[in-house]
Amino acid sequence: MPDTRLREYNPLINGFSDAQGPMDISLNEAKDRFGQFPSIYGIVSEKKSEQNQKRQENKVLNLKIGYFIKDLLERKKINLKGEVHQFFNTWHRDLENEFGICTAPFFNIHDTRLLKGLIRKNKAIIDQFSNADIRQHLSDSGLIRKDILNSIHPDVFLKKTALILQRKIKSSVGKGTQQIQKVLNDINCHATMMAIKQLTGEQLLSLSEEMIQGFTDEICSYLLELNTFNPLKQIKGLKARKGSGIEFEYATRDESFLKLGKITSDCTADKRGFQSDINIENIFWTVFSWILDRNYQILKVYFNNEFVMKVHLLPLFVSASGCLEFQSITPGRSDYIILAVDAIETTVAFRGQLEGTENNYLDRYRDEIFSKTMDCITGLADNMNINDIYAEKFSNTPWVREKLNVYPEIFLHVDHMIKIDQLEDVYYLAKKLSARHGYDMSEEVFMEIQMKNTFLQPGYINKAPRVKSFGLIRGNARDGIPMKQIIGV
Q1: Cβ(250)–Cβ(109) under 8 Å?
Q2: What Å distances lie between residue 137 and 143, 180, 186, CA to CA?
Q3: Bridge-partner residues for 92, per DSSP?
Q4: Average pLDDT, stretch 241-250?
């Protein structure tokens, strides 16, 4: 008879602390030992309201780290991608030399070498619009009165003058319209160059190679925008989103990163009430370790400029020596890197769960979007020099689960899958950031990896409680644990 006993939700998670180093620890133990109450930071009130007398405050992980990261992103409007890139560039691990994998495609979709060539070819145009005196340009054009120009605050000067010229275009005809449009294009070109400066801290032509590497995708997007106002040379090689068909981009490591779970209504939403299934444990706390980890990536999928799906990815190391509890359970192969598809989550519209969406137009493109996404992931693995791709089968979307169940399966004990550096890197980056920006630093950091969570789908409880079945996107099923070791046949 199958074991139908319900288990308390208590998966193993990854942790790191100054005192203990790497930790594989249960969620409940981590909360008991290291969790804090949100009321300490004023996130919820210490007093219960009359309407919410039954509320029980629970301890939360990563609260101190989450507090300062949220403040940096939302109040100071910082994009952490540059900080992450600079830190990992000086980190003592070299994944290419140690494991033979290339991490550059995992951080930027675009090739930095292509971008550097594009900058060289368009140096004159970039320099022109980076250093343009738009106020003087407008004054010389006579399109806006000087008293109006002088009254506009510098912080909104480009935006306000662009709006004025847009209104003038609507009321003008003939050559006058062409002149106004030319000046408006110049304003937009300069605004684009200033946006790059705001993102990186320097003008594009002054950026170091490290900064260009750190913000390759973002700079490419800005140059595509510049191209719409002033044609650039060799622009066709850029893959930035154009707003049509099936397109991909990596999640930006700014405040929008924190809102992705709310948009897809999954368990990483900032409040449990935003989840499609409120019975699933909320793990918003893990988002703060993901955003600091160069080796954790979220691929966003768009269809006709609409965000429809996200895919969580990370490289994991498979080692037979990782499993101490069941020495008889060994994989057919060990000591290799896999690209783990840690989660695939969709928006409500793409799940077909909105009222009146039985004939949702997205449903007609479901197979194509999913197939192209798998192609994108296998292409990424190729670029990273990773052969094997395994996927977590749990998703907030029933049709995604059905598609993942079609793939051949491979069995691994979750202890066989090891996160490279086991959060030591993330911890020291958080420590460095908190010190630089004047925040208190927590003494530990935690992350949930869904691939290692055995509480999301039925396991092989009797024989091997922490063995999981994964979708074999690419690889050999014989590299996993033989079925006879799992069920005793």
Answers
A1: yes
A2: 10, 12, 9
A3: none
A4: 92
388-391 and 336-346 beta bridge pairing: parallel
Pairing of strands 417-419, 246-250: unpaired
Residue 6 bridge partners (DSSP)? none
Tell me the pLDDT tens digit for each residue of 130-149: 999 999 999 999 999 999 99
Q: Are 291 and 255 in contact (CB under 8 A)?
A: no
Sign of CA dihedral 305, 232, 185, 134: positive
DSSP 460: B
Q: What are the tens digits of pLDDT across the range 214-235?
A: 999 999 999 999 999 999 998 8
* Interatomic CA distance for residues 468 and 392, integer angstroms: 9
Q: In 131-215, where does DSSP find H-type helix?
A: 134-141, 146-151, 157-170, 175-200, 209-214
Q: Which two tokens stand for residue 208?
A: 């170091």
Amino acid at 205: L
Tokens of 233: 């040379």
Angle at 283 between CA 280 and CA 285, to 5 degrees: 165
Residues with Cβ within 8 Å of 218's Cβ and at least 6 positions away in sequence, in order, are 79, 81, 196, 199, 252
Smallest CA-to-CA distance from 453 within 9, 26, 11 is with: 11
Structure tokens at 48: 């219960």
DSSP 10: -
Determine the residue type at 321: S
The structure tokens listed for 381 are: 């693995």
